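Standup, Tuesday
Yesterday: got the pipeline producing C-alpha cells again.
Today: sanity-check two examples.
Blockers: none.

Example 1:
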Amino acid sequence: MTALFMKHCRRAASLAGLAALPLLSGCLFVTDTTRMDPDVFVRETAPVFNFNSVSSNRQPELPPQPGQLSTRPPDLFRTRFHQEYGPPVRGQGLSAPQVQGQAAPLAPDRMVTYGLPVSNPLHRVMYGPIRDEDRSLPAIPYGRIDPRYLRQEVSYQTAEAPGTIIVDTKQHFLYLVQPGGKAIRYGVGLGRDGYAWSGRGKIQWKAKWPRWTPPDEMVKRQPELTSISAANGGMTPGLNNPLGARALYIFKDGKDTLYRVHGTPDWQSVGKATSSGCVRMLNQDVIDLYERVPKGAQIVVI
C-alpha cells in the first residue's frame, strides 16, 4: 500500500513540474484553436510596396472587407532621406498579382525607398581609389562631405566664356564654365581671412605631382618650414605634399601671384577657410579639372 502511494506521489510531482515549466521559462503554451482569419493575416502582412504612393492628402476610407487588400498606405513620410531610384519594380502596363480574386494596386514606376541615405552611384566611381602614374590615391569618404561640395554639373549664368574658371570665395565653389548656361561645380577650401586673393588672372603653368616650395614670408612666420624652403629645394612630390596631385599656377600681368589651384591630402578642408591664400580641391577633383583646363585658361576669383 505504501509503495503504491509513493508511486502516485512521484507521478503527481512529475506532472506538476511539467505544468510549471512554461511559467518558469517565461513562455505560455496556447492551444491552437484553428480559428485564424486568413483575410486578416493577408492584410496585416502585405508588403509595403503593394500600397499606393504616399499622399499627404489622405482621404478617410471604410475598413477593408474580407478578401479585399487595403489600399491605405502605412504611416510613412517623405524625408530628406527619401529617394526615388532603386531596384526595378512592376511598371504600368503589366498586370498586377491577384489577391483572392481582386487585383492589387499597381506599384509606382519607380521604387520609393524610405530611410535610406541619398547617394549618387557615380560618386563611388568619381571618388574611388585611383592609380595615377606611379602613385595610388586612396578613396575619399565622400559620404562624410557635404553633398554641395561634390563634383556636379549645374545651371550657371555668366558673361564669362566657356572654359573660364570662376572661384566663388563666399560659397566655396569653383566653376568651370560650360556652353549652354552650364558649369561643372567643385567644392574648394580657401585662404584664411587676410590671405585670400581675388581678381582676374590666367593659368600660366600646370604641374602633375608638383613640388611645394613655401614662400619666404611663410617660412619667416613658420620657422619649422625652413627644411623645405626654396634654399633647401622645397618639399618632394607625394601623397602628403600640401599641393596634392595637381597644381594650376595663377599669374596676373605676367607675374606669379604665388596662389595656386591645387589638390590636397586633407579632404576635410574642402568647404572651409584654411590654407594660406590657395584654392584647395579634392585630389580626384583637381585631376579632373587639370584634364579639362588648357594652359592659358582665364581664372576669376570673386
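Example 2:
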Amino acid sequence: MSDRKRPCPKEQDIDADCPFTIVYKANPPRAEEKREKEKNGKTCTRRDRHDSKHFQLQTFDFPRTSAFKAMDVYYVVQPSNRWLGMTRYKNFRNGFTCTAGDFVIVANEQSIKRQCTENHVQDGNSKLHDDHWIAQVLEIRALDTFNIYARVSWMYRPHDIPPGTLRGRTIIEGRQPYHGPRELIMSNHMDIIDVMSIKETTDVRRWIGSDDEEIKDAFYYRQAYNCRSRVLSPVPRT
C-alpha cells in the first residue's frame, strides 16, 4: 500500500488530526454473549451491559462467497463517552450538503501540500488527483458548529492493495491488469475524520454488469477488501 495511505488497522486505527480512535474486535464482543444469555433466560453481568453499550456492529452490503466472507466488523470509538455524548445528525453543510451514506472526496496532507505549491488554471472543472482519498460517510456527530466529525469507510484505489493480500488462492499486491483508471475497492477500514477535510461529495457506483455505460465518467467498484483478514473479493463474472 502507498505510504500516503493510512495503514490497515490492527487493534486500532488513529487519525492524527482527530481526537477519536476506532478500536476493532477480532472476535464478536460480549454483547453477542449477552444476546445469547437473554435468549436462554440467563442473567447478564455488569460487564455484559457495558460492552453491549459501547461495541457496535457495522455491516457492509457486499455479496458473500465461499472465498470471501462477510466484511462486518465490531468496533468502538474511543473515548466512547465523548463520542456517544455528541449529537448524531443525518447530514451537515459546508458549502454543500453531505448526508450519511454519501461518498466524499477527502483532502489529506499530501493533497493540501500539492494545492499550496502548484499553480492551477481554473477552467470550471476541478481535476481529482490520485492523492485525494475517497470514502463513504457512515455516521455524523457534532459537539457544536465548530466540532463536527464523520465516521467513514475508505474506498481504496487499486494501488493501495497491500502486500500479502489474498484473492482466491493467489497472493497479490497493488494494481492488477483488470483494474480500470477510475476503479475503486470497497473496504471495511474505518476512521473518524473532521468534516472540514471533506472537499465535496462524489458519485461512486457499484458495477455488477458488463455495460461500460453504467460507469461512464463515474468512480465505480466491483470488489471489496477486508482489512481485518487481508482478503480481496474475486472479480465478478460477467
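Quick observation on example 2: The two ends are 28 Å apart (CA to CA). The mean pLDDT is 80.
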